[in-house]
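Summary for the steering committee. One of the milestones for this cycle was to obtain a three-dimensional model of the protein with magnesium ion bound, which we needed before selecting residues for the alanine scan. The sequence and ligand used are listed below.
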Amino acid sequence: MNTAALKDTARLLYLAETEKREVERITKDYPELTVEEAYAIQEELIQLKLWDGNSIIGPKMGLTSRAKMKQMNVEEPIYGYIFEDMIVPNGGSIRMNELIHPKVEAEIAFVLGEDIEGPGVTKEQVLEAVAELIPVLEVIDSRYENFSFTLPDVIADNASSSRVVLGEKVKKPDDFKLDEARVSLMINGEVKERGTGAAVVGHPANSAAMLANMLSRKKQKLAAGSIILTGGVTGAVMLQPGDRVSAQVEGLGDVSFSVKP
Ligand code: OOG
Ligand code: MG
C-alpha cells in the first residue's frame, strides 16, 4: 500500500468512528496488507486524533488470550492507544447512539512507576516497575461491518478501542499473585464472563513485557506514569441500551458503568 492509500485508509477509519458507521474491512480491497502497513495506518489515525486536540492516556494490548491468538492464527498480541476522550468516569455512562456495536470486557491495567525499555523485557522487570494496579472495563467497538476483521484490519483500527472505565488505583501489594486473581464481568447483576489474570498470556505482566519489546522495534518505550491496559481477561460481551455493567477484580475492587440509549 502506498503512502497516499495509507493516509486515505486512516481517514476512512477516523470518519467511521466519528460518524458512527461501519466500513468494509480494508483487506477486502487490499488482501496483501501486512502487519507493518497496518501499524502505519494506525499511526496515521493516531496523528489525526492528536491533530484534533485529543491526547494519549496510554497503550493497550489486545488479543492477549491464547485462545483468541490461536483463533486468529497469530503469534503475537496487538497494541493500540487509549485517548483522553475515551475515558468514562467510574459509575458513569456511555451512550449507545455514539457507538456502532459496542462490546465490553474486563481487564487489569498497570500504572508504571518507572520507564520500561525493550528489547528483552521480562515479566519480573515489569512487576518491579509497576506502581499501581487498576480494575478496568474496556468497551471495544470495531469500525468494521459485523465486528469482523483479520489481524491487519484490527491493528489499523486502533485495536477496536472505544471507551475505557478505570476503577480506583490500588498500590501494588508486594506478594500479590495477579495471575491467580479472579475476574468477573456482570451485566444487570448476572455474571456473564469469568477468568483469572493468567488468561492474559499467563500473567498480565507478560503482556506489558511483550508490549515493551514490540515498541522497542520502533525505538519507543513505556513511560513512567502511563496507564497500560494489559488485555481482556474475560471474553467480550455485546452491550444493549439500559445495561448496567460491572467488573470485579479480586484484590483490586469493582468498576462499573451503565449504557444509555
Ligand atoms: C480487538 C481488541 C481486543 C482485547 O483486550 O483483547 C482487545 C477486538 O477483539 O476487537 O481489546
Ligand atoms: Mg481490551
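Key point for the committee: The two ends are 39 Å apart (CA to CA).
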